[in-house]
Write a structure and sequence with these properties.
With 499 residues, the protein is an alpha+beta fold. The chain is 33% helix and 26% strand. The protein has a domain at 263-412. It has a nine-stranded mixed β-sheet with strand order 7-8-6-15-16-17-14-18-19, with helices on both faces. Strands 1, 2, 10, 11, 12, 13, 20 and 21 form an eight-stranded mixed β-sheet that branches. Strands 3-4 form a two-stranded antiparallel sheet. The longest helix has 22 residues, at 79-100. Residues 493-499 have low confidence and may be disordered. The structure holds flavin-adenine dinucleotide. Its EC number is 1.1.5.4.
């Protein structure tokens, strides 16, 4: 047993975008609180938050068709899209605050402007897209969205996709120029550099193995120092479990009743990447299509321009896959060891219900490169196999829980689980993910520190001027915020340079 011990106000487990965001928010709200971080890898932002492990879409529901469903009466429900867009505006405001206050520099290292587009084929899909466009474009949050079913216009917008395309089927797209590509890995590293400069104690290569509530009402963590191979004990008044896919196991170890009857199901992501400049230069957008029948919502295919480490590339995918690991750097035993007496029935119910998903994932795993190229050719008809390589992305652990819809229901969103006394919180699930980190971490703060909210509100409003308000209902504030965040984050200037 190692003899290093610490006592902190706050412990953050995991150095991904969620812990980075929560740590930064708390440091602004209560600079005097002592914060300690434990991360099992050697650096911050190396799991799902790493740029190559996610799609880098600043999810604002500008292009993702799964956020706008068609209702039985044929109208399009845009309520989820509105929610996600409002949440993304919260992130944009917080990131602008960080840049304006000099807490992070060079926003171009983590965010770039990029048109977001949806593209569909076939009469029925075109009619859906048009209805979706009409419902969204009247809303201030989606102002500037254009629709076209004219192949000549589409050739201007997406030349690579329209080249050599057989046009005997109807085709249409929407385009909005206020979309973004976000390097969440780079942002995570910037935030941890900032936290380090504020004396946050960041411990890499430290794996949290156990969490227990002490008789004094503190949380005691058993942490393995992977360099010295010793076990340390660290205590805190408040613990945030931001372990990404690793969060479920840690939540189970905490023993809180709110963590019972919850299971996890891992879905892997695989992308194809193209770095051939001749191809890359012909595309400048994120273009989202429609999910195939039977595919889970996170498998909507899209063709994206990416900006990673000052290099432009194209990414296509994701193809889903199956691995029992809960983290890309996890263990093959993750799934089986997550089954506990309290969640076994929930897991079994989900297993029986989700056979079509399991079948779909197995089919996806078995795809050959040529079969993946065929799916890519639905986007780029003349794509050549030699221009494209496979990259394995991160793991998404979907939450399984008992809901009104039945026992063992698979959830595709994000779940914040907190103890009744607010002394511990865990984040499960991964969608819409990193884009809404600021909104989700404010939810953690709200749930866990209600007694401080009155005192903290003015500072939160300084960081996020629209805090607690609907921007959709305040179009003037929306425009003001939109213009100022675009300027601070360098989104207008670069738009001009790139076009
Ligand atoms: C294929 C794919 C595509 C995605 N696309 C998008 C997208 O386009 N836009 C978007 O907004 N989001 C996207 N997401 C979701 C987004 O990546 C995640 O929501 C986000 O990165 C999660 O951040 P996190 O901090 O919770 O987890 P992570 O970034 O995974 O960080 C968790 C950290 O905890 C550490 N850890 C785990 N267990 C322990 C332990 N016991 N002890 C110490 N450390 C531990 C891990 O090593 C890791 O560094 C995507 C995800 C995937 C997988």
């Amino acid at each position: 047993m190692g003899n290093r011990e610490t006592k902190s106000d706050v412990i953050l487990i995991g150095a991904g975008i969620m812990s980075a965001t929560l740590g930064t928010l708390l440091k602004e709200l209560v600079p005097e609180w002592e914060i300690t971080v434990f991360e099992k890898l050697a650096n911050a932002g190396e799991e799902s938050s790493n740029a190559w492990n996610n799609a880098g879409t600043g999810h604002a529901a500008l292009c993702e068709l799964n956020y706008t469903v068609e209702k039985p009466d044929g109208s399009v429900d845009i309520s989820k899209a509105i929610n996600i867009n409002e949440q993304f505006q919260v992130s944009m405001q917080f990131w602008s605050y960080l840049v304006n206050s000099g807490l992070i520099q060079n926003p171009q290292d983590f965010i770039m402007p990029l048109p977001h587009m949806s593209m569909v084929q076939g009469e029925e899909n075109v009619s859906f897209l048009k209805k979706r466009f009409e419902a969204l474009s009247n809303n201030p949050l989606f102002q500037g969205m254009e629709f076209s079913d004219d192949p000549e216009k589409l050739k201007e917008w997406i030349p690579l996709i329209m080249q050599d395309r057989n046009l005997n089927e109807a085709i249409a797209a929407t385009k909005i120029d206020t979309g973004t590509d976000v390097n969440f890995g780079s942002l995570t590293s910037m935030l941890f550099d900032h936290l380090k400069s504020k004396n946050v104690d960041i411990n890499y290569k430290h794996s949290v193995n156990d969490i227990k509530h002490t008789s004094e009402g503190l949380w005691e963590l058993k942490v393995k120092n992977l360099d010295s191979d010793t076990v340390e004990r660290h205590t805190a008044k408040f613990v945030f479990i931001g372990g990404g896919g690793g969060s479920l196991h840690l939540l189970q170890k905490s023993g809180i009743p709110e963590g019972k009857h919850i299971g996890g199901f891992p879905v892997s992501g695989i992308f194809m990447v193209c770095k051939n400049p001749e191809v890359v230069e012909q595309h400048h957008a994120k273009v989202y299509g429609k999910a195939k029948v039977g595919a889970p919502p996170m498998s909507v295919p899209h063709l994206d321009t990416r900006f990673i480490d000052n290099e432009k590339s194209l990414l296509f995918g994701p193809f889903a896959g199956f691995s029992p690991k809960f983290l890309k750097n996890g263990s093959m035993l993750d799934l089986i060891t997550s089954v506990k007496p309290d969640n076994v029935l929930t897991m079994l119910a989900a297993g029986a219900k989700e056979m079509p998903l399991t079948k779909y994932l197995i089919q996806q795993v078995m795809l050959s490169k040529e079969q993946r190229m065929e799916e890519l050719r639905e986007f780029i008809p003349n794509a050549k196999a030699e221009d494209w390589d496979l990259v394995v992305a991160g793991q998404r652990v979907q939450v399984i829980k008992d809901t009104e819809a039945g026992k063992g229901t698979l959830q595709f969103g994000t779940e914040v689980i907190t103890a009744a006394d607010g002394s511990i919180a865990a984040l499960l699930g991964a969608s819409p993910g990193a884009s809404t980190a600021v909104h989700v971490m404010l939810e953690v703060i709200n749930k866990c520190f209600p007694e401080h909210m009155l005192e903290w509100e003015p500072k939160i409003r300084e960081m996020i001027p629209s805090y607690g308000m609907s921007l959709m209902e305040n179009p003037e504030l929306l425009h003001k915020i939109h213009d100022s965040t675009a300027e601070t984050l360098g989104l207008i200037e670069k738009e001009l340079v790139l076009s």
